[in-house]
Amino acid sequence: MKKFRTIENIFKGSQPHMVGDGFRVSQYLPSQINSMNRLSPFLLLDYHAPYYYEPSTYTRGVGAHPHRGFETVTIAYDGKVEHHDNKGNHGIIGPGDVQWMTAASGVMHKEYHEAEFSKKGGTLHMIQLWVNLPRDKKMIEPKYQALLKGEMGAIELEDNQGEISIIAGEVNGVKGPASTFTNINIYNVNLKKHGKVNLNEPSNFNTGMLILKGQVKVNEDKICKESDFILFDNIDGSISVESMDEEALFIVLSGEPINEPIASHGPFVMNTREEIYQAYEDFRNNKFGKEVF
Ligand code: MN
Predict the structure, then answer these.
(1) Rounded to whole angstroms, how far apart are CA atoms 242 and 261?
(2) At 136, which CATH number?
(3) What is the whole-number distance in angstroms between the Cα of residue 111 and the centre of ligand 1?
(4) Residue 97 belongs to what domain range?
């Protein structure tokens, strides 16, 4: 008998809401499980399911806002998103690309639809994740990583069953390009019909997956649908996933928990209330730097 890593919970995201006027997202973490700890180091998961935006003469998005104490990770599947921050970083990400911003001690950034994409209109499909930083990394210098599709770790599954694209950490010895501050595995898995994969994540890593496309059968038993999030128990065992559709796509989030207190308010995630007050005070006193950039 194979031992599977069993399912603790399957849940959907919230009703979609707009972030600024450009991102129609459904929140999974923390609101749908009422916890910023259960999937530590993953604090927040907003999923922008495929949604068509009409051509527009103005640029949709969200204006300058601060962050401190964690990282924002934006993963694009369809459409183009542009980013500017007040540390001089600027990037455009398209399908398969990832932007990994370590806000740490503090940045101001804005995120919006890329100009040409806005003008032509089109479908946007993306994820934004907030990844926590351990206490001793919360106030380091901010950092920015633009990770392009071609740089991702790639595994072709045997017999043309599909492929794995690794953003961070490693799968079967193949590494992803992201540099991270704690042990994290993030990867997309694309399966053809009846393509099957066995995943082995350490039992002490908090592990979940979001189904982005198609239906899959998990652990030879449970049928999971598009936009289901599957949270696994922290036990030894492998996770088997088989595609029930012509194509299935899902993302795996797995990481070693940061076992420290979380104090969170708005765009700041620290360890104590005092550090949150300090973040607001620093923001008011322009210590995050200029707002126009
Ligand atoms: Mn932001």
Answers:
(1) 37
(2) 2.60.120.10
(3) 7
(4) 7-255
